[in-house]
Amino acid sequence: MTKDLPHGQPDSNVVESDEAYEAREKAESELARLDYYTLLRVARDATPGAIKAAFHQFALKFHPDRHHLEDQARQSRAHAIYRRGAEAYRVLTDSDRRAQYDASLAKGVVRLVETEREMPKPKPGELVIKSLAARPFFQRALEAMTQQDWKTAKLNLSIACTHEGDNPALRAKLTEVEDRLKAKQAAKP
Amino acid sequence: MAAPVLGIDLGTTNSVVAVSDAGNTRVLTEPESGSALIPSVVSFHPSGDVLVGHGARDRRLVDAANTVYSIKRLIGRPFRSEEVRRARERFPFELREGPTGGALVVARGESYTLPEISAFVLREVRSVAERALGQAAVRAVITVPANFNELQRSATKAAGRVAGLEVMRILNEPTAAALAYGYGSGQTGRVAIYDLGGGTFDITLLEMQGDVFEVTATAGDTFLGGDDIDLLVAERMADVFLRDNRYDPRGDRQAYERLRAAAEWAKCELSAQPEVELTVEELAYGEDGAALNLNFTMTRREIEAMLTPLVGRTFDVCEDAMRLARLRPAEFDRVILVGGSTRIPLVRRMVQEYFKSEPCCDIDPDTVVAMGAAIHARALAGDVPQPSAPSSQVQVPDNAIGKVALRKVSAERVSLPAGLPPPIAEASNRTAGGPPPAADVVLGSSIVVGAADIDVDVNMNEMLPPAPPPPGGTGGFDAAIMMQQPQAPYPSAMALPQTRADRPAPLLLDVTPQSLVVETVSGYCDPVIRRNAAIPVEQTRVFSTGLDGQESVLIRIAQGESRRYDECQALGQLELHGLRPAPRGAVKIAVTFEIDADGTLQVRAEDPETGQRQGARIALVGGISDEEIAMMAQRQGQHFAESR
Q: Which of A21, A179, B564, B590 has the fewest beta carbons under 10 Å from its own?
């Protein structure tokens, strides 16, 4: 996708309030030492049916829909508790993951967290634009270049350079486009 | 009556609105016509008026190019998607690409975003509701097909906002239907919801346990529905006309539109009659100017032969859901039919064959979704007692209950560890105004409990047992679970099966229909939140900078099940900005992706090293900003003010 996407979805960008943030942090620190069985109040050898029933009771108590009319701190706290319970339910009702969890619990690890991965490094030779301001102009320049519209490409690259002038790769691209434009103009009688 | 909260089924073909109040749940009808179905059609009249509903539907036959319908099939889809490409071939109105990659409808020289078109429908729906109720209504729950992705859900929400509604929840249609059938019945069992509407097919498998409705799997095809049946029949009509008159009506958009309307009528008639005969007059004119009519007959046997492959496709989708839930079709206690297309006898027969049980359609399949949405809307508005709150009257329509004779759960389904005491006596003696709070029974005296036992302020350390119970379960946990089964006695305050009042609010545990993925190296992607995860759900991923002094990170996100990014539906990109200057790799950002109860995506980001909250936003394909929503709402307000 090479489209410029200037508009965010408003609901995706709601900033957590300080109050909610603190309540969540507090709940999470309290939850940190609770294992999944304790959280859902089931025995370690509970059957899947028993885990399901226990989760339903848990959900009736902590599901966000049960708290959405309350103040933000309480909502946030309930939400944090619910999320952890849902995580417990997800792991304990999947026999493979439950076995994995039981093994790590024996070593004292109370959460089964999937391995966190790092963001890919840029592909070799790929031009990476660091600032968001420069990015859309760079994208437009790339589109123009594929259509051999060197003039538009030059304009957009110049603007991109004003936002990120210290990027040598970007400068090189601009020089390349300028050369192409010159060559094209020279070819004309 | 307090401010009403609407349940809106924003359908491909028709929309329906219902409301639930102290007395019951009812579908609201247009006071003038008495009609419950509001056609989801918007027509831009030469006079500048915008017609919506029945008036607009009639315009399809005379002004096809400016009459917009079935927009739900396209909402939230990028202009460059296969679906929009196919729609451009067959829809008589013009579509073009918008600035953020979404599709725009062009009518009478003006372009409209798809949420804006849907908003016209929602305004009409709201107006019908307000006229029927005699009071203003602003809050609403709007339903969408279970298989809708992030873009489609967000666009539907935006439509609600453009229409001036406060959208309390985007709810899945099958889940709403399950609520309409099951809420208040207090029964337990496995339910399959087979939802074949005008444009989409969804299968949702869920388990009902009292007031908890837990979706275990969902799958769908957002391009399979009644519209496709109409097209098959219209094609047949066009062939007949071509054979009889050596003229192909497919070349004339207006004529083809009339064939589609005739096809839809024939389809509906054939659900009730063995044969249908119709004439479409003056479909075209011959060389001498003489009118050419279409004379067409079709038998039910013929239409069924045409439909069998199409209906067969729905069972491929069902198989997908069965695999996810690890269940077989015969393991369901009930199959519920939703959507107008399930009126077709062939569909009912094939469903019965597949599930080996007779499907249930006691509630009108056209209105059941809106009714379920209304029940949930009322629960969200806080009018229904939460388990610990004082109760008020709640009723489910009489036709919804009693007939849903689900199998009661049997004791064998919950296996008790050996040596457990029988269910604790004091639990059944509880008379607080709520269901048995089993957890508190387990805790015994370690925590103060009472009517207000839902209390998230209580310290977690106090609320939970200090140590995990030893294996073998002597802690009475499973005894507590036994107490939660429906056959266990409820406290006397809850025992009111005759009046069915004092029902606590239902709790819906829904799932996300598609995996959320982020792009990784060389065109592959990494799932962050897997398909079928119970929502709300969140997962955290750590990203790091790839360049020295990098100020921002852009991460492409998509939804889908393929390992290749390009084969998934691109949602847009996640932008992390304002990173602290540091050598590459030194800055790590933990991004938490959350799918909330609406099924929509939210993110928050944090620098795990400094604990600093980080700026993060998602730019969706076809996304609309708050300002644009306000502008559209204003433009629409003017249209409506002028035409009324």
A: A179
| Residue reference for tokens 């995706």 | A12
| Structural domain boundaries enclosing B475 | 415-484
CATH number for B537: 2.60.34.10
| Interchain pair B623, A5: CB under 8 A | yes
Does B179 lie in the same domain as B275?
no
Nearest CA-CA partner of B465 in A55, A83, A43, A88 = A43
**DSSP secondary structure letters along A71-135:** -HHHHHHHHHHHHHHHHHHHHHTSHHHHHHHHHHHHTT-----PPP-PPPPPPTT------TTTH
Which residue among A21, A39, A81 places its CB closest to the CB of B456?
Answer: A81
Structural domain includes residue B529: yes
Same domain assignment for residues B456 and B435: yes
pLDDT at B476 over 60: no
Is residue B263 situated within a structural domain?
Answer: yes
Residue of B nearest to A132 (CA): B552
Interface list for B 84-143 with A (CB within 8 A): 100-101
| Residues of chain A contacting residue B534, judged by C-beta atoms under 8 Å apart | 86, 89-90
pLDDT tens per residue across span B381-404: 876 655 443 333 333 333 333 333
Same domain? For B607 and B638 the reply is: no
pLDDT digits (tens, 9 = 90+) for B59-108: 988 898 999 999 998 999 989 888 899 888 888 899 999 888 889 999 99
Max intra-chain CA distance, chain B: 95
DSSP bridge partners of B171 = B143
Domains of chain A: 19-106 (1.10.287.110), 135-187 (no CATH)
> What pLDDT, on a 0 to 100 scale, did the predictor assign at position A66?
86
ipTM: 0.71
- How many structural domains is chain B composed of? 4
Q: Which of B183, B442, B460, B483 to mutate to test the interface with A (most CBs of A within 10 A)?
A: B460
> Chain A: nearest CA to B514, how far in angstroms?
16
Calculate ∠ Cα B501-B505-B509, nearest 5°: 140
Nearest chain B Cα distance for residue A123, angstroms? 7
> Which of B105, B118, B126, B128 has its CA nearest to residue B31?
B128
Which residues of chain A lie closer than 8 angstroms to B155, CB-CB? none
Q: pLDDT at residue B627 above 80?
A: yes
Burial of B549 (0-12, 13-18, 19+ CB in 10 A): middle
User: B438 vs chain A: nearest CA distance in angstroms?
Assistant: 7
Q: Which of A39, A51, A58, A60 to mutate to test the interface with B (most CBs of B within 10 A)?
A: A60
Closest CA to B44 of B63, B61, B66, B65: B66
Q: Do A6 and B100 touch (CB under 8 A)?
A: yes
Going by C-alpha positions, the residue among B401, B431, B364 that lies closest to residue B187 is B401
- Residue B137 sits in a domain whose CATH number is 3.30.420.40
In terms of domains, do B50 and B18 share one?
Answer: yes
Q: Is B58 exposed, middle or buried (0-12, 13-18, 19+ CB in 10 A)?
A: middle
- Flag whether B299 is in a domain: yes
Task: Please indicate, yes or no, whether residues B139 and B249 belong to a single structural domain of this protein.
Answer: no
Determine whether the interchain pair B417/A41 forms a contact, defined as Cβ–Cβ distance below 8 Å: no
Contact between residue B124 and residue B39 where contact means Cβ atoms under 8 Å apart: no
CA separation for the pair A41, A32 (Å, rounded):
16
Asked if B521 lies within 8 A of A121 by C-beta distance, the reply is yes
Q: In this structure, are B475 and B560 located in the same domain? A: no
Residues 574-633 of chain B with CB under 8 A from chain A are: 575, 577, 588, 590, 596-597, 600-604, 613, 617-621, 623-626, 628-629
- Is B565 in the same domain as B523? yes
- What is residue B638's predicted lDDT score, i.e. its pLDDT? 78
Min Cα distance B599 → chain A (Å) is: 12
CB contact under 8 A, A117 and B526: yes
